[in-house]
């Protein structure tokens, strides 16, 4: 990816997977904040970044995607 934000990257990564509607809002095309994945940029949750999911990415950044494990009973 040439340049862009964390949002741009997540949309690009998840737009072609069969469960994309769980991650990308089909009405708006935006990353769903209530998705089943947590995204971290350089070890920091995007919720804690000053610009959040709209943080610009730089060469050498590390993005970690984690599946949120949910339970119930």
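Sequence proposed for the structure above (73 residues):
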């Amino acid at each position: 990816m040439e340049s862009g934000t964390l949002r741009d990257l997540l949309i690009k990564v998840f737009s072609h997977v069969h469960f994309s509607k769980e991650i990308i809002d089909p009405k708006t095309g935006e990353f769903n904040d209530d998705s089943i994945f947590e995204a971290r940029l350089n070890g920091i949750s995007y919720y804690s970044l000053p610009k959040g999911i709209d943080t610009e990415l730089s060469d050498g950044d590390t993005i970690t995607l984690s599946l949120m494990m949910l339970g119930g009973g």
